[in-house]
């Protein structure tokens, strides 16, 4: 087996294992439950899952999406999150190879998945996730001290305007968690990719939410976190190419 294919298989397996942990975070963080020590169990009957019930993706498929004990359906969220995290890890390593950037962006994408699902359900981005992304940004600065001004400007470039909107509208125009997210992401991405990620998130949020309002009667209130997360992810993966294309398009 060629080394590159073997590496991608390892990356994907690592991604789905982390994805299994993300499901734990998604369920327990809003409930203020311990994400490290409490045993995983069936939500219907309380059956404590064995190790062979917790193999990412494969256990769900082997059990037909049902609890081994009571037969109740297991949410499809679990395999989707696991597979998505694995696929995103593959994209990151395909884009950046074996590097510090890949490691930081893998952790970033996992955090974005967790905050997206939680914000979509609760309209709240947990502070701990934003602090985790902020920590990734500090690591990025330590690993790339030469360009530290780009990251510091990134921290301020989107968050300051959003903070003003938050203060003027008293939280009705934008959520405090969204402000913190763009500050933390800016420290990790730098100002160019952060601004692009924000713009992409706004475009995606506008288009997708309008469609949801028309098709499913969704209210005008939206959780912005998932759309900002998508914009940030697109900016990480293809932002440099987008910026280069735009600059060439306008003749710069």
Account of the 3D structure:
- With 252 residues, this protein is an all-alpha fold.
- The chain has two domains: 1-98, no CATH class; 125-252, no CATH class.
- It has ten helices and no strands.
- It has helices at 3-28, 58-62, 77-96, 100-122, 127-143, 148-157, 159-169, 176-189, 191-216, 225-249.
- Helix 8 (176-189) packs antiparallel against helix 9.
- The longest helix has 26 residues, at 3-28.
- The chain starts with a helix and ends with a helix.
- The mean pLDDT is 90.
Entry summary:
With 252 residues, this protein is an all-alpha fold. It is 70% helix and 0% strand. The protein is globular.
Oligomer: single chain
Compute the CA-based radius of gyration: 19 Å
Strand content: under 5%
Mean of pLDDT: 90
Strand and helix order? HHHHHHHHHH
Largest sheet, strands/sense/barrel:
none
Cα shape: globular
**Integer tally of domains:** 2
Number of strands: 0
How far the N terminus sits from the C terminus, by CA atoms, comes to 45 Å
* Poorly predicted regions: none
Which properties best describe this structure?
252 residues, 2 domains, 0% strand
Strand and helix layout:
Layout: H1 3-28, H2 58-62, H3 77-96, H4 100-122, H5 127-143, H6 148-157, H7 159-169, H8 176-189, H9 191-216, H10 225-249
Helix pairs in contact: 1-3, 1-4, 3-4, 4-5, 4-10, 5-8, 6-8, 6-9, 7-8, 8-9, 8-10, 9-10
